[in-house]
Amino acid sequence: MIFKLILFMVIGVVLYRFLGGKIPIIDRDRKQVVKEDDDFTKVSPTTECANCGTYMTEDDVIIYHKKSYCSNECLEKAQQR
User: What is the CATH number of the domain that holds 61?
Assistant: First the structure.
């Protein structure tokens, strides 16, 4: 009985690895993202600066006290207020 359980587990792991770590039943419902070479199709989320209102990408944002700032100058101006 234990041998059969171990055998089924090994077969399951091998199938899981063979499928690339994806379960087809679950991944079937997800929409596939179309990859294009156009820079216009790439949209990055933006955030507004709490001081000056400039929009910047989430990679460039400076977060201080749960507020977003575009630069150290805007952060210093907001701290002086």
Answer: 3.30.60
Domain residue limits at 55: 42-81
Entry pTM = 0.45
- In this structure, is residue 37 part of a structural domain? no
Max alpha carbon distance in the chain (Å)? 73
Burial per residue of 39-77, b for 16 or more beta-carbon CB atoms within 10 angstroms, e otherwise: eeeeeeeebebbbeeeebeeeeeeeeeeebbbeeebbee
Sign (positive or negative) of CA dihedral 8, 10, 16, 18: negative
**pLDDT category, 7, cuts 50, 70, 90?**
very high
